[in-house]
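Friendly challenge for the regulars: who can give me the structure tokens for this chain first? No prize, just bragging rights.
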Amino acid sequence: MSSVWAEAGTRARVAPVEAAAYRRHAIHGEDRTWIETNCYTDLVVEMVHSLGHEPCAMLAFTLAVDFEGDQWTFFKPSTSDLAELYGVDVQELAIWRPVLDHVVEQLGAGRIVMVELDAFHLPDTAGTAYGIAHQKTTVGVNEIDPARAFMGYFHNQGYYEVQGEDFRRLFAIEGLPPFAEVVKRLAGYPAPRGEALVQASLAKLSRELARIPRDNPFPRFRDRLAADLDTLLAGDLERFHKYSFATLRQYGACFELARTYLEWLSAQGVAGLEVPGNAFWRIAQSAKAFQFQLARSMARKKPLDLAPLDEMGAQWDVAITLLRSRYA
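First reply, four minutes later:
Bragging rights claimed.
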């Protein structure tokens, strides 16, 4: 870790949170069907939450996911969503020095740094990657103290700490530099609150409807899964996890967030969203059940019934037709 800050007494923190007392947003509550979505969206949800904003207001982006041919859309909020709804400007960070130097400087300027690090050294991934597998994942560095070899960070569904040898190895980065972004709060920007936030979010919803695929993505996914099935059945558990993450987990978790978004709007007094919300909820639950069915088929090397995808497609039609009729 060749950093000019390695032995310096430089400590910086942005959001006033501590791992031991951190209360995650309800989006990551234990009652969720999909407690985790993807590392970027989960991180942004908790980061926005910690900065005193309502993450549900940004979730209109979940409506426009599509089957992309070899995966479902890796869904995440746009930089314009974060800027307009929360006064948060996300900019790419050019890495030309040791990563730790950049992190220390940016946090010292009051900016959270989102950076790809190796989950092998992140204690919150115990049981999946920590000390087991080298996997890149995006974290939001909120606190740094190089002198103590300490970092506080947002990751997945919570806020965590890492220190000591794990900290040192995280920043002993060799080869190509990781992708990183800085989260800069816009000075003097009055982030909308209350009814103004609701109206800004509804404007986002109308724009997102223009991005929704013109044809139902579920028949296309059904055809692709049918073509992939022989290869999947010949694969192992690792193949299942990779395939499921790129497909079933992506759209299942996304449509649960879509339902959460419509529930939030309903709680703000926006009427007529119960039916599409329930349709998205059925997709999320069905995707979870279908994931288990795929796992069993692969374990037993037996065919998989694809009929549940037809019902998920029917629910997508219900939800999108109703939303388009009202907001498009």
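The longest strand covers residues 136-145. The CA atoms of residues 222 and 300 lie 21 Å apart. Your move, everyone else.
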